[in-house]
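Dear support,

Our group has been running a series of protein-ligand predictions, and this particular one with pyridoxal-5'-phosphate is the one our PI (initials K.S.) wants archived with full inputs and outputs. We had some confusion internally about which version of the output was final, so please treat the block below as the authoritative record. The input we submitted was:
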Amino acid sequence: MQGFSTRAIHAGQDPDPTTGAVIPPIHPSSTYAQDGVGGTRGGYEYSRAANPTRTALQEQLAALEGGRHAFAFGSGMGASDTLLRVLMRPGDHVVIPHDAYGGTFRLVDKVLKHWGIEYTPVDLADPRALREAVRPTTTVVWAESPTNPLLGIADIPASAEIAHGAGAKLVVDNTFASPYLQQPLALGADVVLHSTTKYVGGHSDVVGGALITSDDELAEQVRFTQNAVGSVPSPFDAWLTLRGAKTLAVRMERHSDNAERIAELLTAHPAVERVLYPGLPEHPGHEIAAKQMRRFGGMVSFLAAGGSGAALRICATTKLFTLAESLGGVESLIEHPGQMTHLSVAGSMLEVPDNLVRVSVGIEDGDDLVDDLRAALDAVR
Ligand SMILES: *Cc1c(COP(=O)(O)O)cnc(C)c1O
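Confirmed final output from the archive:
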């Protein structure tokens, strides 16, 4: 098999046969001429069902995750919703991470519960807890690794074994790692989910999601349901995501380099109580992360020693780290999950500590990032 970057730059992206254009065209057409009724050219009839720019992106994403099928969505949540509708029926049960992405928890707890879906939050770092949580009605084990925003690590092969033993599918939200750092299908997962808004797109200029699987039957159901519910990306969004993903490998190496330096700064600084980064040997998931990830990525969280006031002041003081939600872009961001990205889990059992700060370490020069964050930490000592 070709290397990761070769696939990122070439899979689904052969030069256009009519013009020779090296870059896949953006096809805004909603409909396609038929050569006689039912005589489609390449299967295209209407762009909710299929669109050539989206096909190019899907072939690229399938190649990057090592899966047979990929589906691009209008958002990560659109992908999650479609997948859960495929895999669950009223009365079915899903295991979710006890520190799941807030939007995933909100979808299950606030929306799908009205359709009779039951769920149990579990610490997926503990395979025993997962074994105890699965029931005869469990159809999905939903894992995230590393988790957003606490950087918890799930043992993917162990989770796959337990899920399959219970007759359930293992879904891995691979958004934080990206396909460059971690390949869940090879580790036993049935489906990989991405918010391509984050590292895959990588430039904070497009919202999107994706599902990748090698299960032909499941892929057919996803294809049917996605077309039925209509959660598709625009051709321009598909094109932006495809363009961003070409440089994923070089970006993830640089994100990881810079994040390691930021984790080092935070570990040594008195304004910090605890650093959450799977690359640190003292992280409880470090050994498992080292086995299933190439490197440890660009996301770092920490607990401010001075409580929530200090956490909020650090977020307000950095200059290069922009105070904003989201993550995974080339620019560095900082945020307070308790009052920003994870407000949707406030008061629930997934509530996050109020002195938690999350940084998405970008690919600027490492020295500048270290200087900027150090100045903000010094200011609250
Ligand atoms: C952002 C995010 C999502 C949701 O994706 P959207 O593109 O915002 O809909 C899901 N999972 C994780 C881990 C995320 O960070």
